[in-house]
User: Fold these one by one.
Assistant:
Number 1:
Amino acid sequence: MINFEETLDLAITSIWRNKVRSALTALGIIIGVSAVILLVSLGQGLQNYIKEQFESLGTNQIYVIAGAGLEGFGQGPPNFAGSKLTLSHVNEISKLGLPIKNAAADNDIPAPVKYKGESRVTTVTGISHNWLDIVNINIGQGRKITKSDIDLSRNVAILGKSIINDFFGNSNPIGKKIFIGGEYFEIIGVIEEIGTQSIGFDIDNFVIIPITSSQRVFGIDSLQSIIVQADTKESIAQVKSKVEKYLLTQMDEDDFSLVDQESLLSTISNILNVLTAALGGIAAISLIVGGVGIMNIMLVSVTERTREIGIRRAVGAKPSDILGQFLIEATTLSISGGTIGIAIGITGSMILNRFFPTSVTPLAVALAFGVSAGVGIIFGVAPAIRASRLDPIEALRYE
């Protein structure tokens, strides 16, 4: 009777004897596992990045958006052209009292910005004087927009770092004028370099002007959204209820939507979870291809080693021993390929992290390893059964 140790030794010896064939057989598993880890790490990294960006903006904010749903959120006209939100609503919400801490207006409009013959289309954001404080955006140079700038509808602007670099290079932009919507605006500040925000806004490419100036220049009386700041994260629900109750006295239910950070993050996370699963599923197809490759090679191996199987049966090996040997060979190939694939996937993820946010989770590694082992077992069963059922006498006669 042949024990497990001997069967394992025979399986490994067979794999080692055909190194090139074994390596090519495992290649499909290597590619599949590494692809799964890479794509899942990209999806997970994007989720983590978005969560961090939301937290950096604060978790005690509520967005009042024009219309029912999120269709107009983050979009310029005509998406909020029919908005019924106005500056008077901002002022009244600010006066509702605790737990409402603050409220600010926001209009984001794509428009060309010009300076000395150079032009680029960017997002021109009209804001209230307290908007920057609510969303935790700091000024790196110059000053913020004040309440006086809002009240007097002054033509002043704060620029993102990317626009400063494009128009002014290393020179000081403060006091210089840019052309927006047919009027000149004096640059009073530069935003600290931030990058793309959680809801897809690249603040470095923004031009920020007073909300009243934005409405005058672009001929818009309404607001795209109102951002409301609660005194604590725990009072979000109370603030939403209070704001909703007030707005329902001013307009219909379908004229506005209330979205808090957690709800928005949850919606985006659900979308990204589906995307991550889809990416992982696409990559997993290559694992199936690798499994078919293992099965084909093992079937060929059974044919090539028919006489060897007959000799083993003649000296006392049971069908279960033959079955075990071929199963071990297939599983070893897939596990070896899976291990190498995991190493390549993790290394590739670390390299990609220099350009895109990635995150390799223990679950992704465990799943990839488990699937690779399962592939070896599942696709190794048919060749193993065929080998174990060979008639010993016929096998010995095989040439």
Note: The chain has two domains: 4-52+268-397, 61-231.
Number 2:
Amino acid sequence: MKTDEFDSIIFDCDGVLIDVTNSYDVTINKTISYVFKEITDITIDTPLTNEILLKFKSTGGFNDEIDIAYSGILCFIAAKKLNKDPTELILDVLNNADDSGIAYVENFLNKIDVAVSSIKSRLGYPSADKNDLIHSTFDQLFFGPELYSKIYQKKSKFSEKGFIENDNVIVNSELLEALKKKFNDKIAIVTGRGFNAISSSLKEILNQFNVENSVFLEDESRDLAKPNPQSLIRAMKGLDSKNCLYVGDSMEDIILTQKASELGFQATFCGIYGSSKLPEMKKNMFAKKNASLVLESINSLPKALNLV
């Protein structure tokens, strides 16, 4: 791989620019616990282990953390109906999962005679207005009362601070200045986050990216979610990029670059593994997929790109 061939660099956010292990990952479990208690009056403390969370994200169909929460809730309700250990059931679901996300989970449970349709109608997820129990619970827990009210013009039912405040920003201005010089300011973001969520955490650092040609998928229609390559293609077109290095941390990101390249938009994947709670497991996942470039952190980019 010749690093001087790249004419732009585009970043995923979560797990790359920001360590989300104490924010998004925690919110997934808190949402499952809250919604499951609302429905069954049963308390579960830590529904999904770090290994299971990574297994979800390794399928290529769960770029949206709320989809993981929904699937977890479905599995816990199904396990209760089947009188089965929920962790065992979730592992059964994930062991042969494809990249179709929640559709795969629903089909799997239907095949083992779980009445998913009745559970789905009660949960109402996903909903176009994001007002279903799972979506609203997740967003209220993640954003906290003030930011949730700003985004949705609604009052949160929770008074505690949002887990977004636990975001740990990895990227820094010095790194971005070096990359902007290397790529002639062709530096952008394609992320599952919405603009409000990313700007709340990155603050003024966000202005160092080409925001106009970045894509914040939470603000877009659901059918554009990763691994649909149209978001990356849009960013590349806006940057007038012919050969992009896309820096991500998930299976969706790998598939995203592959699909973009198949459509004639040359994109190379760079995998980041160090912000995972199971870094070696993620590193091995990238190795098995023959990722062109695998780094522990984005802070290793200058050396990898021969900038130092």
Note: DSSP finds 13 helices and eight strands in the chain.
Number 3:
Amino acid sequence: MDKYIESIYEGLVQKDPLQKTFHQAALEVLETLEPAIKKFPKYKEHKILERIVEPERIIQFRVPWKDKDGEIHVNRGYRIQYNSAIGPYKGGFRFHPTVDLGVLKFLGFEQTFKNSLTTLPMGGGKGGSDFDPKGKNDSEVENFCHSFMGEMYRHIGQFTDVPAGDIGVGAREIGYMYAAYRKITNDHGTCVLTGKGWGWGGSLVRPEATGYGATYFAEEMLKTKKESFKGKKVAISGSGNVAQYAAQKCMQLGAKVMTLSDSDGTVYMPDGLTKAQWDNVMDLKNVKRGRISEFAEEYKLEYKAGGKPWEYKVDIAMPCATQNELDGKDAKKLIDGGVKVVCEGANMPTTPEGVIALQDAGVLFAPGKASNAGGVATSGLEMVQNSQRLFWSREEVDEKLHGIMVNIHQNAYDTAKLFGQPGNYVLGANITGFLKVANAMVAQGYLA
């Protein structure tokens, strides 16, 4: 690694030695930016790398709330407002026990480049809490969301920061938070939150957008090899929002979805997921909030407790669950099984060792900042509709989403080729996303 870039990375590690996930994300980006820094010396002169790795603002606060028995609990709330050079901060809230500053800095950093790739005017941010919605009833979740927004409302707004959902934050949580925001501020319809219900300011296709977008990106990757999804076997991890709609779109494009999973284990479907089974998963996960083992038991399917989807022979792998779920050993299993494409639906689900193994084996690999950008892209489209007081049809939104994903793929593909590494989507996506943000920061001076 270039000495200048290495010094920036080492500085991050020294300042916050425990934030391992953030270090991983920063290193992955910084390493691939070396050709751009050499080609354009102005970025070094303006200290863009030193500035872009530091969040503009970090907000931390307590969130007291009462459970069903009246007992008081206290969680931590956070918002990382990472970079606003090209637009208001944009990024989801995550409610999960693993949430801490290191995780949110990683997510906000990635979000900055992801949002840049969409070409929409959105900066990067991320937030959430170590609160766990799992096992809580609706009233408890509502109590928490109201308390969380009681502090968060001060820091967000349509021209400042526009949060959305993430792990643990779906339509239910967005609804509770939006109600609290409206009551506190007396503002309605200001696109301060995206992922709203379609009847009260939301956009059609937003729930589907991340999973659909990742599948559209994978489809473009296959086209570079003159192939398609038809007849392909696909391993998908997760069974939440992203995995659900990635599975649906893969099926619509003629593929066989062989696996789904959750934190307890993996279900394998030798004949591929059917429409009736997909409907069952949607009800199980979104209404009953059950486990994928229950689905496997109902349909008498193979289920491996603690197992991963990557041990099966498939053509395409789509990790759609969480960070670092696909490591070097998993990558070796996929390679041995003949995988052709790995397309990330989650944020950084593949470890550095996994990425290197896949790339060395000639597998086409798409990083999440490019391939899962469909969710935030459609959030951007929701913001446009709110601002103009418009409501687009499902077909209109899906067409715009598809066009954005095709453009992201083309830009990443072309940039990788321009810098002498054709097919390296990691380098292509990182440099493409970086250049737009970096040029805006140079143009606005040292305060940007």
Note: Residues 394-418 form the longest helix (25 residues).
Number 4:
Amino acid sequence: MSQCRVPRFSVETLIQQYTHLQLVHNSVLGPYKGGLRFHPTVDEGVLKFLGFEQIFKNALTGLPMGGGKGGSDFDPKGKSEAEVRRFCQSFMTELFRYLHPSTDVPAGDIGVGGREIGYMYGTYKRLSNRHGEAILTGKSLLFGGSPFRPEATGYGLVYITKLAVEKKLNRSLEGMRCAISGSGNVAQYAAEKLLSYGAKVVTVSDSNGVLVFDEGMTKEDFDMILECKNVNRERLSSLKGKVSGKYTAGETPWSVNVPVDIALPCATQNELDEDGAAMLLKKGVLAVCEGANLPTTLKGQETIRSNPDIIYMPGKAANAGGVSVSGLEMSQNAQRLTWEPHEVDEKLHKTMSNIYALMEKHSNGGNLEDGANRAGFVKVATAMKELGWIL
């Protein structure tokens, strides 16, 4: 069912202690597609489970993309701009020979944003003398990126959450208290879209602590968080006394005592454990919609499922907006076109609506989680059978 490629090599003296991994999993529906992650926790096991999940997430989008994952245990935090640039260049010096628009097209993930994609794409162009190719997505608009790609995962998460709340609860997002974990790309744009719908964003976090907004985040708070994370590249603790929220070190959105209607884990894998899930149930949570890849532990999932009235949407469905627009970026590159932002947003809306419809169709009277798992698996398995890869 899968193919694996795990090159391991040394690079320049500055970064030769890091392991570089690019794992590919399944190409039955199209070229391998998934994010590159730069984080100390990255190893072959992490990339295998992320790549496996990516196969079924990409299948749900309806776009011709296989699944894969890659990255390194290099940690960009605390590194200078020059150190990050040199690492990205060395990483791509080895990876570039495996990439092609019809073979393997990575995107960004934790630790890999527009800056890192730019450095890697510049190295690819220098080494290959090929220009305008969709061998990376999440690129700058200056060299082939898609409008709306940075916003896509966070916005898509809120679009599909809004559908679930309206259809399952017969309610509006307006006034709902939404707890977000993380403060990176996904969390930022999820918060922005929630604010536009009149929801109350009550938490954001990073690996050191959590900001709690008892009355909901304000637009001014949001702008300061963007500056903190995207411009100054600082920790949320630097916002103590500057925003309306209270910062608590060593806590998460799932451990602090704040009322929550909707939980949106948007940070990393295995962040919402059994205790955190139990705390959410005590708070009367109505929905858990995953904005990260597998953010809920197995015990956490079991705890959430113990109350069948809670909406639970797994990341393979709820955070598929990002890879959907990555697929659209590939289409734009192939046509040598750049669509208008409203066109991409309309396609993202449609994709998330289609994913929700697939979950309902395949739920067989059960829940959305079952529907997502069945829909993705059936599509991949059927394609493999039709290609003669399985009996």
Note: Residues 13-142 form a domain with the Rossmann fold fold (CATH 3.40.50.10860).
